[in-house]
Amino acid sequence: MRDALRNVTERLPMEFRVLYRQFLLRVIDLESLSIEADIPRFLGQFAGVLILISVLQAVGFLIVSGQPHLTRAALLGMAMRNEQSFLAGTMLIEGLVAVATWDKAFPDRRDVMVLGPLPVRPSTILAAKLAASASLQGIAVLALNCAMGIAEPLLAGGIRHFPRVFAAYWFTAIAASMFVYGAVLTTQGVTAALLPRRWFWRLSAVLQLASFALFLSAWLFQPSFGTVNELAKAQQFGLLARWPGFWFLALFNQMSGVFPIELGTLARFAWIALGTVIAGATSSLLLCYMRTMKKTVEQPDLEPTRGHRRWLLPLGGQLKTAIVRFSMHSLARSRQHRVIYAFFLAIAFSIAVSTLTRVATSHHMQPVTTEFLVGTLMMMCLAVAGLRSIFSLPVSLKANWVLQVTQLSPPEHYIASTRRAMLVLATIPVWLTAAGLTLCFRPWHQALEHLLVLALAASIMTDAALIGISKIPFACSYLPGKSNVQYMFWAFAAGFTPLAMRFSRYEQSVLDDPMSYAALVAILIVAAAELWLFNRRQARSAVLYYEEVEPEAITTLGIGASQPTSRDASASL
Q1: What share of the chain is helix, strand, coil (3-state, %, to 5)?
Q2: Nearest alpha-carbon partner for 36 in 570, 563, 553
Q3: Using CA atoms, how far apart are residues 208 and 224, in angstroms rounded to an integer?
Q4: DSSP character at residue 306
Q5: End-to-end CA gap in the chain
Q6: Which is it for the CA torsion 564, 566, 570, 573, positive or negative?
Q7: How far apart are CA 152 and CA 252, in angstroms?
Q8: How far is CA 143 from CA 45, 49, 54, 81, 343, in A?
Q9: Do 516 and 510 touch, CB atoms closer than 8 A?
Q10: CB of 259 closer than 8 Å to CB of 253
Q11: What are the b/e assignments for 171-188, b being 16+ CB within 10 Å?
């Protein structure tokens, strides 16, 4: 198998193979990478998280389906719910990958200036970029469905119909991912071809965030149906036609014939949508590569802003104000930073939306519940963790040199400015959102008491996230693969979530007990002060760094001091 794959790749043109390798490794902007960056390891960690999710869900499905009294109808209902879940998850992951690699399929200024003078055809560049994007999309689809793509066809179709259901499952998953990615490419290509380049980049930021919000909202609010009767009733009311995920569920049913329900109309929607986005993406890409590649050099990406923005308030001293504003501008102008931070904020504010939805459906004020307390703590943790994760990803390494040569103040002032940026961009917006949500709860004193606890918890989270940080936000090169994404993901899911639930239950129990509440606040104040003082002491002896490097590994020969040297040996002779 490996030899056959090698023979196929060796028959491809050399230009295509070189460009494909480079484009695949440019998932993250090269200007933000450390010289020791390990991008394949980063991609492997990304795939590892998805594989673990798929394996856990497949094991749960196998355990539940192995019950002795489970009927065939109940098994099909479980398979239908799992298929809905995995189609929605596949479309979400593909949408997030497409948004994260927003402009990677289109030529940029570097491609035109480097590859333009070389004898490389635009069609070769286009094919290499599409192949690299397809490889990344394929990694996501394969990793997320690797386990369930075998378990569900085996249980739903049996040994006899396993090949048919297996082929239908994977064709549907690939078709759903192609629909999402093709829709993103079509939107980008049409706007890039019709608008001047500088207008396209300004509108591109809005479209990128809007696409991200659309994909996440569709995943959060898409309904799920566990029985064939529920699905048929929803089809009669026209509910299924509003969600593209059910179009591809109908396509899976049409190809596999597993579920005893007719969804032919929705399956036609899937075929039409798939053909439309493929045609739109192909035509827009060809148009951009054949006619508008010169715009990347002839027209500037951004124009300088005229005038001064005097409406910005000072955020401390001159250094703190400068670094906070630098962080704000970096977050506002960088598409990559916005998408990563938007992922955390979208999950955080989806908790706020769900809280408002429950209050709106109840039509009356509610007492402070444990779910609300847990939700606000999760919002704060996600906001702090999200901003901390993008602090290590610079806008450009040129900013490192500017800040490095102008370092006139002690390092502790820069580290204090980093903390101020964290407070302004993460904790304060989330705290204000939680304060707005408390208007839906009564009594007032419980809501105000929780806001005080949340403010102290935000201070603790901020200082805990900045332990050992001796750099300026967005001004240090990035070393992908250094942190283990799998451990961080599952540590948050299995560590912080149960801790937040226990803390929220205890907080709810002391809201009406003044002495216990005062003790809780005192403990939080002491913890927040200790962390703040610890970081301040560490900052006094810290040295700012602007380059992420792997720690040096020193290998010794293992020659101990007790062993005789050559001079001693000769003397003894």
Answers
A1: 75, 0, 25
A2: 553
A3: 27
A4: P
A5: 63
A6: positive
A7: 12
A8: 11, 8, 7, 20, 20
A9: yes
A10: yes
A11: ebbbbbbbbbbbbbbbbb
- Quick one: 567 exposed, middle or buried, by C-beta within 10 A (0-12, 13-18, 19+)? exposed
Nearest to 86 by CA among 108, 114, 54, 51: 54
Q: Is the pLDDT of residue 25 over 50?
A: yes
Q: pLDDT tens digits for 424-465?
A: 999 998 999 889 888 888 788 888 999 999 999 999 999 998
What is the sign of the dihedral through the CA atoms of 532, 538, 541 and 546?
negative
- What pLDDT score does 572 carry? 41
Residue with tokens 């040199």: 401
Q: Cβ(33)–Cβ(477) under 8 Å?
A: yes
pLDDT of the residue at 567: 42
Whether residue 222 contacts residue 89, with contact meaning beta carbons closer than 8 Å, is answered with no
Residue 172 · residue 252 · CB < 8 Å? yes
Q: Over the range 307-342, which residues count as b (16 or more CB within 10 Å of their CB) and which as e?
A: eeeeeeeebeeeebbebbbbbbebbeebbbbbbbbb
Give the pLDDT confidence of 289-317 residue by residue, as tens digits: 766 555 555 555 555 555 445 445 667 78
Please tell me the distance from the alpha carbon of residue 261 to that of residue 57, in angstroms, as a whole number: 25
CA angle 510, 512, 513 (to 5 degrees): 60
pLDDT digits (tens, 9 = 90+) for 325-358: 888 888 877 767 777 787 777 777 777 777 666 6
Residue 35 half-sphere exposure toward CB, CA atoms < 13 A? 3
Q: Which residues pair with 65 in a beta bridge?
A: none
Least confident residue range of 180-184, 242-246, 292-296:
292-296
pLDDT greater than 70 at residue 166: yes
CB 437 within 8 A of CB 376: yes
